[in-house]
Task: inverse folding
């Protein structure tokens, strides 16, 4: 227990506001890497996932691509891209790695959300004379929103935990304190940095839970099939 008290004492020490990397700056860097990476991944994965779910084509390719992306170790990819792109592009190398990590969960949430919709609903919309675009934006996108938000939530939590490795190429973030603590054998600093990463993950998870309640109508949430939710969870944790 003393180690936990020491860790919290380290976190709230006035010294955290000074030094080579003040704590507020490190938190800002950590969140910036997370938000930018998830945003870029969403811009890539959401249109692709919607296209797959809407047309019913390319699902097997998406699953294979997602599995391949998950098989790549994030730290190894960061270092490899850092060496390939050069030391002046280490930020780009890290962001690309985090984007690769985030894409599978978002992609699965996007196309699984469409697949979870009862096909009779789509058929009824087409029978009423709706065009393909109207079906997409008025039926599929709103009804697929719960699983899409779930995919974004999973991707964000994965990225915020993985951003700690950015410090291995000198990019800061909360991983800086963990690595520095290992080098100096400061266990209070290691645990303090870890607690801060966990706290950020919990805050972001709570924010997505609130977003889900605010954005998604209750009736839509209640009709989301359990098998589709389980599919996204399985893809996200594979």
Result:
């Amino acid at each position: 227990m003393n180690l936990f008290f020491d860790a919290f004492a380290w976190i709230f020490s006035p010294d955290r506001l000074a030094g080579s990397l003040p704590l507020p700056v490190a938190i800002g860097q950590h969140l910036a890497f997370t938000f930018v990476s998830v945003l870029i991944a969403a811009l890539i994965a959401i249109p692709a996932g919607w296209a797959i779910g809407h047309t019913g084509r390319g699902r097997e390719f998406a699953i294979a691509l997602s599995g391949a992306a998950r098989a790549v170790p994030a730290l190894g990819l960061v270092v490899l891209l850092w060496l390939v792109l050069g030391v002046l592009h280490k930020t780009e190398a890290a962001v690309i790695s985090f984007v690769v990590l985030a894409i599978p969960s978002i992609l699965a949430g996007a196309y699984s959300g469409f697949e979870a919709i009862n096909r009779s609903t789509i058929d009824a919309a087409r029978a009423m004379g709706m065009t393909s675009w109207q079906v997409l934006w008025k039926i599929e996108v709103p009804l697929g929103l719960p699983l899409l938000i779930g995919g974004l939530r999973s991707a964000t939590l994965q990225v915020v935990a993985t951003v700690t490795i950015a410090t291995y190429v000198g990019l800061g973030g909360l991983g800086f304190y963990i690595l520095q603590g290992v080098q100096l054998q400061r266990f209070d600093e290691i645990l303090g940095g870890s607690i801060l990463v966990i706290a950020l993950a919990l805050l972001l998870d709570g924010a997505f839970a609130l977003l889900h309640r605010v954005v998604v109508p209750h009736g839509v949430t209640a009709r989301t099939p359990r098998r589709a939710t389980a599919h996204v969870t399985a893809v996200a944790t594979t």
The chain has one domain: 23-237.
